Amino acid sequence: MAVWSKSFWRPVIKKGGKIPVFNMFINGEWVGSASSETFDVLNPHDQSVIAKVQKAGVYDARKALDAAYKARGSVKNLRAVKRAEILEKAADLLEKYKRDFVDTIVAESGKPICVTEGEVNAAKERLYYASEECKDLYGEEITGDLSPHKFDKFAMVIRQPLGVVLAISPFNYPLHIAVCKIAPAIAAGNSVICKPSSQDPICMIMFARILEAAGLPKGVFNLITGTGSDIGDVMINSEKVNMISFTGSTAVGQHIAKICGMKKLHLELGGKAPAIVLSDCDLDLAVKEVLKGALTFSGQRCDAISRVLVEEKIADKFVKKIMKEIKKWKVGNPKDRKTLVGPLINEKAVQKVELLVNDALEKGAKLLHGGKRKGLYFMPTVLDYVTTKMRIAWEETFGPVVTIIRVRNYEEAIRIANESEYGLDACIFTKDIDKALDAGLRLEDGTVSINASPSHGLGLFPFGGDKASGIGREGIRHSLMEMTKVHTIIFKKNYEP
Ligand code: NAD
């Protein structure tokens, strides 16, 4: 791609060869894998190879672990003002090279350009927030006179960095999700190893260059590329890692939880967000939000609306409006500004959506729109009369499918919503303030949105899942707290006035 020929990206790419080969960033150096093995990164639009990336093995993973472990002292001692300065500079550089990041993400992930621009902007903003957070890292002082046994004592409760944070990120927000882990980790004074998804790792390799140029000391940030099955376990098991911040599927999250040992764990996992549409709602708003929630980035979002629980009495009207509005969701090349729905990430993803749609159709669902694939594109699909006997009612779809389940009333909607093993996001459309509040309290999900589809962006509001959707919360301030530990120093007073 033309943008990679700029001199700024020169260290990132190996010299020679027709197809660019990207390096890894370990201990402040741009390196290849010890085995010299690489793997291809494909453009989901046409499945052409756009670049090759290093295939790290256990030796490389150990090198990254050693580097991060050794650097943890240097970042801890890097003053907060300096950490803030580096993060701010990184944000400025991301702005400067925004076009390069946008073009890269569009090519490697198939994300439509308008959505990708939002992702890069959000990552930049997150860096600015993190630079402010560096200056906002303090604990508390507790006097002993709350207890008769502690009159002669007081404590300083301070926040300290954890040490080494291992950040493992998924394909769907290849830049933003990783930055949401890395920025607060550095703000808190940790060193970091990042392992991005093998589907679209290039933007994160480029981000390592941004951190290098921003002046982060050697070893504080390490970027390793390779498959989770090759290098995952050695990093997850390592005693050099103090915290794992993982975003990805529930299956991999559960594997990590099983083998990680005594480490702080942050897991952001799968979802199956319900949208409850009640008969008293603003129907036009509900239709727009449901489509946005179901179709943005082809539904490849953990917070995608993937079950629409509509009250029977307005279901026909709702469906009619959905059918009219869905025509606006233009499918096409993600490079085209008018495109709203691009390809899915890979063949496996398309096959999973096909499987769930076909299972629903075999069990009596009605196909009103789409249902077909072309290459890695899956057409925006509307399934009506979905029932709880169908797999699509429970399994993560990760595709552009509006899954309509007609319910008798509000109580039935709440019951079905809560029967899911997932508990990440939910939303409800109603003008009844009592029902909105009741749903807000009773829905078993980390976040409940009222009259809006789930959307998280910057992380201004804390974000995370319950049940099989994860452990812990991310977001401005919240991530920083999760990435520090409480350290208490107790003073005994020898002097009584
Ligand atoms: P995935 O679980 O396949 O991969 C996520 C990351 O884990 C990748 O970097 C992958 O290489 C790595 N990995 C895979 N096996 C590993 C192993 N054994 N050890 C260590 N690392 C391993 O997920 P994905 O397909 O990239 O992303 C989609 C999933 O992520 C969906 O389930 C989605 O709901 C979830 N997700 C959740 C959130 C959230 O905030 N809750 C956000 C985005 C995506």
Helix content bin = 25-40%
Bound molecules: nicotinamide-adenine-dinucleotide
Gap from first CA to last CA: 74 Å
Helix and strand content put the structural class at alpha/beta
Low-confidence regions: none
Q: What is the molecular shape?
A: globular
Rg, Å, rounded: 24 Å
Oligomer designation: single chain
Overall number of strands: 25
Largest sheet: 7 strands, mixed
Strand numbers in spatial order across the main sheet: 15-18-19-14-13-21-22
Judging by the overall fold, what is the CATH architecture of the largest domain? 3-Layer(aba) Sandwich
What is the third-level CATH name, the topology of the largest domain?
Answer: Aldehyde Dehydrogenase, Chain A, domain 1
Beta-strand portion reads 15-25%
Number of domains: 2
On the 0 to 100 scale, the average pLDDT is 96
Number of helices: 14
Q: What is the CATH class name of the largest domain?
A: Alpha Beta
What do we call the CATH homologous superfamily of the largest domain?
A: Aldehyde Dehydrogenase, Chain A, domain 1
